Amino acid sequence: xxxxxxxxxxxxxxxxxxxxxxxxxxxxxxxxxxxxxxxxxxxxxxxxxxxxxxxxxxxxxxxxxxxxxxxxxxxxxxxxxxxxxxxxxxxxxxxxxxxxxxxxxxxxxxxxxxxxxxxxxxxxxxxxxxxxxxxxxxxxxxxxxxxxxxxxxxxxxxxxxxxxxxxxxxxxxxxxxxxxxx
Length: 182
Hints:
By secondary structure, the chain is an all-alpha fold. The protein has seven helices and no strands. The longest helix is centred in the first third of the chain and has 59 residues, at 2-60. The model has no long low-confidence stretch (mean pLDDT 83).
């Protein structure tokens, strides 16, 4: 009788361990997906703001067609593709938007245009939200990957085919420290 109780207790402990490990892995995987969806929302917001910005700038800087076409082309890639492709498109957009904002320095009327200033502010806010969402995503992915690699959860992860997620990386050109001189 005592032996039966011990065997039942061991089986119950193993079952509880398997259940909590599996549920923990599912929870972390869902947090990674949620963190990605936050990035996705901000990328969509940026996607929607860009045509208004381009149309506002077109009126002032018609001969800057190449810059504006680059923004529109990168925008189309922003909502399609894999997460890494979308992040690459996001990096292209960032560079293109810097070019548009630099254009405003050459066109005083554009620089003073209320619509342009409003769009610039909205895009700056969106940029900050994208940066925050990237940080949150990478933190969540790091926690998930640690959980996948830690013993004994790694056994459960391999049994149910949980895969590691990739961290979002910073492009090499953004790693360089800007040269500031006075």
